[in-house]
């Protein structure tokens, strides 16, 4: 079984902001595979289903970004999975342009507070990640304000494509392996 967690903030005011691309990717997967992500438990909205023959839990932590680890820890403990093999976390990355993806099998938080909190709750950095580019913070902007902002129309078009690609990358991890997914999706997308 795999637990696929998309990071974001709950509430309508945060819907479709830069920080919520993880939630948006979970929505893409849920729609594609007919999984309802509406059960409430483990400090998350979640749903169980099958993706290409693999049992999955799709989850959107409801703790707010900076406490995402609380929900992830509860999910791992409840489903008794090996987080190094069966956990995939999808989240925003300001060091990548809108439309770009970066997959990693492990690594530091890179300044992302949601990932910092997950690492703190798991006690390690070895879990699979799908990072979705949201663009670099413009000079003079406050980081919190920036990641909670919405995309421009041109950025949104690129991001919508990258959400589909992020969902494809998750499927590739499930059906092939992390290395194959990294080889395919870590390439820079032109445009």
Automatic annotation (TrEMBL):
Highest taxon listed in the record's lineage:
Bacteria
Q: Which UniProt keywords apply?
A: Hydrolase
Q: Which organism is it from?
A: Hominisplanchenecus murintestinalis
Q: What class of enzyme is it?
A: hydrolase
EC numbers: 3.1.1.29
- Please identify the protein, giving its name as recorded: Aminoacyl-tRNA hydrolase
